[in-house]
Amino acid sequence: MKFRLLSFSLFLLSIAGIQAQSPSHKTLDIDINKKGAGIAPDMWGLFFEDINFAADGGLYAEMIKNYSFEFPSPFMGWRRVQEDGAMGYHYTKPHMDESKNKKYLQLQRLNDEGVFGMSNEGFRGMAVKENQNYRLTFIAKVAKGEDLAINAQITQGRKVLAETRIEKLTDDWKEYEVMLNASETADGVNFRVILEGEGELDIDMISLFPEDTWMGRKRGMRKDIVQLLADMKPGFLRFPGGCIVEGFDLENRYQWKNTIGEMKDRGTMINRWNIEFAHRNAPDYFQSFGLGFFEYFQLSEDLGAEPLPILSCGLACQYNSGEIVPLAALDEYVQDALDLIEFANGSVDSHWGAKRAEMGHPEPFGLKYIGVGNENWGPQYIERADVFEKAIKAAYPEITIVSTSGPSPDGHEFDYLWKALTERNAELIDEHYYKSPEWFRNGARRYDDYDRNGPKVFAGEYAAHSTTEKDALKKNNWEAALSEAAFMTGLERNADIVRLASYAPLLAHVDGWQWAPDMIWFDNLDVYATPNYYVQKLFSTNPGTQILQITENGETLAGEDGIYASSTYDENTKELIFKIVNTNEEAKAFTVKLKGSYKGNGKGIWQELQSDDLGVSHNLKEPKKIVPVEKSVSVQKKAIEVSLKGQSVNVFRLKI
């Protein structure tokens, strides 16, 4: 009997030993004393492009579509209001000055009965919030008649939610500003300008903004959207794109000088995404440039982010017209780049620095980067990039130039550009990848073998496009976000090569999108962040200053057994930060051993982002299905014992 009991005890001990050394349990090592290359303080940033109604109708809080009647169809967004026996007409007439605002509206009222005026539908509708003020501005003059007045209204059907009356209109152009206070929260509302009295009124630049904008600025940005950006603590802001930089032809390219100064001098232009996608045509998609280069620089400053403008190199989008400027005619484009640097950094005594000061910012913006071209390719790009580089470096040798490697992360054009740019000692090369989640998971070692003495990389546009989504609206689901997190550990491990990185696109209106997936979605009333946003935020708010290696048996983890990991040290906070992504369905147990001079208090913070459902995504009604959960973690004898849930992203911070 004793023999049997002893045998059974030995059997249990042997099973325990097998379990203790089970291959499902991993031991990872971090040597705190072996600090590697420095990480750029601005590594994780934001990419902004005016696609998906991201500017007008989105980040830029203007509520009136076609506010200055400059669309090719001058009444697009507007309709005449003629009710209860009112009689009248509406026309556009030309301004007789040199501004880019060429047209204005004339309202001609023939009697004093009923209701007559114009109504604006906004950007896929409008929305107001209860007890919030909305600032209405416009210019107007009386062309004919006496005692004319305007009744400005926000309405939902026949119901008036806000209104105010403007009297004592003059015979000369004058600017007016009034507030409308909303009586309730409502979506799908309209703005109406109603003319009272018989006669003719000229009116233009009819603009409506919430008073509660970001930083309380007039003609400002949507506070709720910018707050999500600020919460990410981005290192840089790239603008204004993207393919919008190139335009479908050169006339349609983005020209920064048309986006500064007073609104009447900014003009209006068709947005290149207006006609790009047959399945999502947007004939009412234009750019007012109310969100222009000054505002981009100002937003960068607000966010504590480095501004990173991208300019046309004289090549229109090669997927569209591919129109090209001859080298002999490139001076205008090069001068635009030099003038932009002066606008951002020049003294108030310089021509363009004075323009910046006139707009309310005498201090320089401190521009460090400038991008030449976007997704261009071939020898035509290299020829033009050479011209830009010589001119910029001659005038501003301290500016870092970002070059493009084309629209794809591999293939003939990519290889050609990398070789040509490396031979020219390019500083920073912009790579783009919109690929499947599997590609991202398999690409975590992409930069392991890049030449450490060659150009640095800007991962300027990337997003995983889920294979579980079959239609054009590819949702921002957990499969995509989890795979991006796995890939991003590879970017972080190779931060000596990958200088900057940003997800793209950034914003999309739920009723006005052309491209999906996108990081943040909104309608006219609300906004929500996607799982991809929370992945980006975990990395951008936990960056570190130096690389530390986290290894298993001396090897880094980039997909082995479905596990991805990276580690950094933060010199500013004296913290160890490590990230582990478990792409397996099942949980995984880990022992993380800390080698070197750990003298912490034995406690740390653990942020976990996880879902068992790879297809789960957010929407306006359910905006937070997957959000980070904060836990505590303890260190005992310089080791951390954790079990990481399946399909999870985990970030640990420890004072060392």
Automatic annotation (TrEMBL):
Organism of this sequence: Belliella marina
Signal sequence region: 1-20
InterPro entries for this protein: Alpha-L-AF_C, ASD1_cat, GH, Glyco_hydro_b, Glycosyl_Hydrolase_51
Name of the top EC class for this enzyme: hydrolase
EC number per UniProt: 3.2.1.55
Domain Alpha-L-arabinofuranosidase C-terminal: 460-648
Protein name in UniProt: non-reducing end alpha-L-arabinofuranosidase
Catalytic activity field: Hydrolysis of terminal non-reducing alpha-L-arabinofuranoside residues in alpha-L-arabinosides
Pfam families recorded: Alpha-L-AF_C, ASD1_dom
Family the entry assigns: Belongs to the glycosyl hydrolase 51 family.
Keywords from the named record: Glycoprotein, Hydrolase, Signal
